[in-house]
Design a protein that fits this description.
With 367 residues, the protein is α/β, with parallel strands linked by helices. It contains 12 helices and 15 strands. It has 2 domains: 104 residues, Aspartate Aminotransferase, domain 1 (Alpha-Beta Complex), CATH 3.90.1150; 245 residues, Type I PLP-dependent aspartate aminotransferase-like (Major domain) (Aspartate Aminotransferase, domain 2), CATH 3.40.640.10. The protein has a 7-stranded mixed β-sheet with strand order 2-10-9-8-5-3-4, sandwiched between helices. Strands 11-12-15-14 form a 4-stranded antiparallel β-sheet, covered by helices on one side. The protein has a two-stranded parallel ribbon with strand order 1-13. The radius of gyration is 20 Å and the shape is globular. The structure holds pyridoxal-5'-phosphate (PLP).
């Protein structure tokens, strides 16, 4: 075997996003034992930084070992007990996955569907919750298959205080506003490889005190031992508690996340969101001038993920030319948009006009 030499790419797909060199440098630092006091203080700083980024005071806030899907599974298996009535908003691939996870956890799921490109109407979610007496509601904040922003901030008021509200913030955290406490979210999960600009491998998650209460009062044990938040709490909870071994924490990934969060907080959340908005608007305008049609409805477009229908004469195969001739990665369509659409990400470090311009210039050369 020889050492690997991956090519340098401009990552403008739906994730992973470009990674800051200092994040990669942090990941190359000496590996510590996962119960070493020096590592525990790094863990505590990481949790504290996650609370700031999620805008929450939730004590139980930590990165799940695994990608965004592990965060989704952790949210679902801890909150959904067999027989629980669950309402999930579905307007793309990731809403459908969340619904499937809830079914697999034994939930009796009602899907509230919306056409791809539109958000799920808040009133329809509220109606379904009332009609079904749902205990849990699941929704995707940034639907990466369509580039739609779901107005999550409206949901709590519409569904009332009782249901547990689970929010997928995989593509939103660090790119657009996510305000866990003010929006009344009970469980919010994300992924490191999108707007946080850290390699894939961890899924930040936060549980509200109500979610912890639901955990305490479950009548059945959580089906997944690995993702059981009560067991994980014994390792992640800071304060006086003695840390107990649950599984070996992915040390180097946590170093990377620590550095990524440090960069996010030094930039400031408002400034970071504004940067994503600026880059997204610049890209949308340039694509529209070239005949690409936005999939997401006006008013609900994510700046960090632009999904477009291809203009006449442009084939999906052009993505291969972008990759091989210009080292630019953009994503293809998912589900009903497979082969017909592109998904262009300007996330984290990549949320800049000069990145967008690089893609536009390459397209002009190829089209
Ligand atoms: N949810 C959303 C909205 C996503 O965009 C993704 C990944 O693209 C996931 C969940 C799953 O995350 P992962 O691929 O990191 O497991």
């Amino acid at each position: 075997m020889n050492p690997i030499h991956p090519p340098r790419r401009y990552l403008m797909g739906p994730g992973p996003s470009p990674v800051e060199p200092s994040v990669l440098a942090a990941m190359a630092k000496p590996v510590l034992g996962h119960l070493d006091p020096a590592f525990i203080s790094i863990m505590d700083e990481t949790s504290a930084a996650l609370r700031e980024v999620f805008q929450t005071t939730n004590q139980l806030t930590f990165p799940v070992s695994g990608t965004g899907s592990a965060g989704a599974e952790a949210a679902v298996v801890n909150m959904v007990e067999p027989g629980d009535r669950v309402v999930v908003g579905v307007c793309g691939v990731f809403g459908a996955r969340l619904a499937e996870m809830c079914r697999r956890a034994g939930g009796v799921v009602t899907e509230v569907q919306a056409p791809w490109g539109q958000p799920v109407p808040t009133e329809q979610i509220a109606e379904a919750v009332k009609k079904r007496g749902a205990k849990v509601v699941g929704i995707v904040h940034a639907e990466t298959s369509t580039g739609v922003r779901q107005p999550v901030e409206e949901i709590r008021q519409a569904i009332g205080d009782d249901p547990i509200l689970i929010v997928d913030a995989v593509t939103s955290l660090g790119g657009i506003e996510v305000d866990v406490d003010s929006w009344g979210i009970d469980v919010c999960f994300s992924g490191t490889q999108k707007c946080l600009s850290v390699p894939p491998g961890l899924a930040p998650i936060t549980f509200s005190p109500r979610a912890e209460w639901k955990l305490e009062t479950r009548s059945t044990p959580v089906q997944s031992w690995y993702l059981d938040a009560k067991l994980l709490r014994s390792y992640w909870e800071d304060g006086e508690v003695r840390r107990a071994y649950h599984h070996t924490a992915p040390i180097s990934m946590i170093y990377g996340l620590h550095e990524g969060l440090r960069i996010v907080l030094n930039e400031g959340l408002d400034a970071r969101w504004a940067r994503h908005h600026d880059a997204g608007r610049f890209l949308r305008n340039a694509l529209a001038e070239r005949g690409f049609e936005m999939i997401a409805a006006d008013g609900y477009r994510l700046p960090q993920l632009t999904a477009v229908r291809l203009p006449k004469g442009v084939e999906d195969g052009l993505r291969a030319a972008l990759l091989h001739e210009f080292d630019i990665e953009v994503g293809g369509g998912l589900g009903e948009f497979a082969g017909k659409a592109w998904r262009i990400g300007l996330m984290g470090l990549g949320a800049r006009r000069d990145h967008a311009l690089r893609l536009i210039q390459a397209l002009d050369a190829l089209m």
